Amino acid sequence: IRGPEGSGKDASQRMESEDHDAIERKLNLDEMESTFEDLQKELTQMNNNQEILERNYTELVELKHVLTKDADFFHETGGSEVETYEDESSGKRPLIKGAAPAGARKPAGPSSAQKSALGFVTGVIAREVFQSFERVLWRATRGNLFMKYSEVDEKIKDPHTGELLNKNVFIIFYQGELAHTKIKKICESFRANLYPCPESAKGRQDLLSQVETKLKDHETILSRTTRQRRQVLVSIAKNIKPWKVKVIKEKSIYHTMNMFNYDVGRKCLIAEGWCPRTSTEAIVTAMRAATESSGALVPSILSVIPSKDDPPTFFKTNKFTGSFQGLVDAYGIARYQEVNPGVFTIITFPFLFAVMFGDVGHGFIMALVAGLFILNEKKLAGKPLNEMVQTVYDGRYMLFMMGLFSIYTGLIYNEAFAVGLDLFGSQWVCLASAAQDDWLLFFLGDNDDDDADDDDGYDGRRRHDTDDDFDDDGQR
């Protein structure tokens, strides 16, 4: 048997709500506090480990690219051995083997004055700052360096910021400790990541194989750590709603208790307030039920205290009258035992609105939209809505009444969507048509001074010409 649409979803929501209520009743605030502390420590430790593992993994990826590209660099320069040459004319020495200038000669002997080893620095730098990096290096060392670089095809996550960036692998050959110090400082200022690289091809190959093995191990550990963290977060997500409800209830209870006065002699809390006279029995019943459910030995007592203060105004409303009462309260609240103007506003406000907004079409659209909100009020109740939609939802009954009254006045005005209608025909009758002359004379009137003549010799009486005063040719 197939139920109505949406019945399965409603049933699952009810079951979930019942489970949350059962969990909430079993919760203890002290136990929740210790549970939260343990979860916080566990998640903090997992996040720190995850961050360290990801940083190490990213550094290994960069080191892998460095070793791969450096092997190509050394292969292009003909090996890792570097020799120096001396130019007889200028005394300049190229840095790389096989690049001897014309007229240069090899040193005669292997003495330290004639031959010196070159050092090199290799690392990874962001591609967007590489040109500035290269230019600063050239100026700082006055061109006494040899640099090669290669672009990495894929984006690499930066170990420090975690951003995916396009990067370049570079290697810089230099001579002397002073140049080495300058180059390292410039690399640090441009946030270039430097990595060690063996000089021999075999050493680089061995280190590359070790890096690849570590990368596989890190991938396995990262996947397990992510899976474990996900399991912890899923278990927290199942209980987050009852935890939140429990904490809000406890907070509201303590907030209310803070407004009580503590009686030192009787060691009890005393609160004074106002309540509707008709709700006294309901309050007593609720206090009795709370005493029984909490297992308190001393019951709570409600006493009516006479007061000379003016009681606050309370108007009982429902979902229909609430919007009208809110409109009246926005202008002012009536005093205690005064007549509530909100009752009259239910009729007067929509009618006066309709007098201004009398239109059958526009009133129908307004009533239709408000009616849709009324039909779906249970589905929309308690859901987070847009500010404008929430305003329309709160005043749905007022808008519905305004739409109905607008339709009524629109029928009186014979108007729909600002277009005039002729549903009932015109009811205007000219009663003076039978005596047109007298009717016109009545509105034109006579001059009070019948005997007075004007300067042109005409008398002061206004005269209306009739058809008898004209001949067949239209002349007077």
Structure commentary:
A hairpin with a 2-residue loop joins β11 and β12. The chain has 476 residues and is of the alpha+beta class. It is built from 13 helices and twelve strands. α8 crosses α12. The longest helix has 57 residues. The protein starts with 6 loop residues before the first helix and ends in a 32-residue tail after the last helix. The strands form five sheets. The chain has a four-stranded antiparallel beta sheet with strand order 4-7-3-8, sandwiched between helices. A two-stranded antiparallel sheet has the order 1-2. Helix content is 51%, strand content 9%.
Order of helices and strands: HHEEEHEEEEHEHEEHHHHHHHEEH
What count of helical segments does DSSP give?
13
Query: Strand tally, please?
Result: 12
Shape: elongated
Strand order of the largest sheet: 4-7-3-8
Calculate the mean pLDDT score and round it.
Answer: 79
Helix content: 40-55%
For the largest beta-sheet, the strand count, sense and barrel status come to: 4 strands, antiparallel
What integer value in Å does the Rg equal? Answer: 47 Å
Low-pLDDT stretches are 1-8, 80-116, 447-465
The end-to-end span amounts to 98 Å
Structural class label = alpha+beta
Query: How much strand content do the residues show?
Result: 5-15%
Can I get a quick summary?
This protein has 476 residues and is α+β, with helices and mostly antiparallel strands.
Main attributes of the structure:
476 residues; alpha+beta; four-stranded antiparallel β-sheet; two-stranded antiparallel ribbon; 13 helices; 12 strands; 51% helix
